[in-house]
UniProtKB/TrEMBL annotation:
One of its GO terms (biological process) is Mo-molybdopterin cofactor biosynthetic process. It holds the Pfam family Mob_synth_C. The keyword Kinase does not apply. Gene3D superfamilies: Aldolase class I. This is Radical SAM core domain-containing protein. InterPro entries: Aldolase_TIM, MoaA_twitch, MoCo_biosynth_MoaA/MoaC, rSAM, rSAM_sf. The keyword S-adenosyl-L-methionine applies. It comes from the Eukaryota. Residues 1-115 form the Radical SAM core domain. Pathway: Cofactor biosynthesis; molybdopterin biosynthesis. Signal peptide: none annotated. One of its GO terms (molecular function) is metal ion binding. It comes from Hanusia phi. Keywords: GTP-binding, Iron, Iron-sulfur, Metal-binding, Molybdenum cofactor biosynthesis, Nucleotide-binding, S-adenosyl-L-methionine.
Length: 228
């Protein structure tokens, strides 16, 4: 894939403990994921990948005891670990009791690593992640703060689901089927008009649902059926 032009890799990993991995994912494969991360880190060190990111959804009582181990993992492998605030979706049993905020994670890390500091110069205008780093280390840490400090105003993401629908907001349940429009004969210009119209209807934040508690009570696809 690298030979074909792949230059960045994102890998989801919510725990560094194999039995817990099987509990969270309900399947085996921990060693395969770790091997993939190792290979990706090596390719990055060789300059063949510009970016390797490991995404970790933080959940209280599940993996919040692994915040420091994940930071140490980022330093050891010289890659970027991104902590993602737990977001409500259909079927993921979201609860505010499991929610660990950005500021809470920061407090934990700063107690262990006092030189942990924000790298605002690395944040691009449309980035979803806030960049942080430990002084003198090559690895880095990011935080995707969708719930406690949303970035909806600068979000430029669009998603196409596997069944051909466009979602202009991860949290919105409104979708437009590009598949159906294509099957009905729409040309590229007509499809572009459909996309433009969908974007203009986009709510100011969180799909128009308000806060995370409102999102938890609203209907949306499970993340596994959205993708991205």
């Amino acid at each position: 894939m690298v030979k074909g032009g792949l230059d960045a890799v994102n890998i989801s990993l919510d725990t560094l403990i194999e039995p817990k991995f099987e509990l969270i994912t309900r399947r085996r494969g921990f060693s395969r994921v770790m091997d993939c991360i190792e290979q990706a880190a090596e390719l990055q060190a060789q300059g063949k990948l510009r970016s390797v990111k490991v995404n970790c959804v933080m959940m209280r009582g599940v993996n919040d005891d692994e915040i420091i181990p994940f930071v140490e993992f980022a330093m050891k492998k010289k890659l970027n670990v991104r902590f993602i605030e737990y977001m409500p979706f259909d079927g993921n049993r979201w609860s505010d009791n499991k929610f660990v905020s950005y500021m809470e994670m920061l407090d934990v890390i700063k107690k262990q690593f006092p030189s942990f500091h924000r790298r605002r110069e690395e944040d691009k205008p449309n980035d979803t992640s806030k960049a942080w780093k430990i002084e003198g280390e090559e690895g880095s840490v990011g935080f995707i703060t969708s719930m406690s400090q949303h970035f909806c105003g600068s979000c430029n993401r669009l998603r196409i689901t596997a069944d051909g629908s466009i979602k202009v907001c991860l949290f919105g349940n409104e979708e437009v089927s590009l598949r159906d429009r294509m099957r009905s004969g729409d040309d590229d210009e007509e499809l572009l008009d459909v996309v433009h119209a969908a974007v203009w209807r986009k709510a100011a934040k969180h799909g128009g649902k308000g806060d995370m508690h409102a999102l938890a009570s609203s209907k949306n696809r499970p993340m596994i059926k959205i993708g991205g």
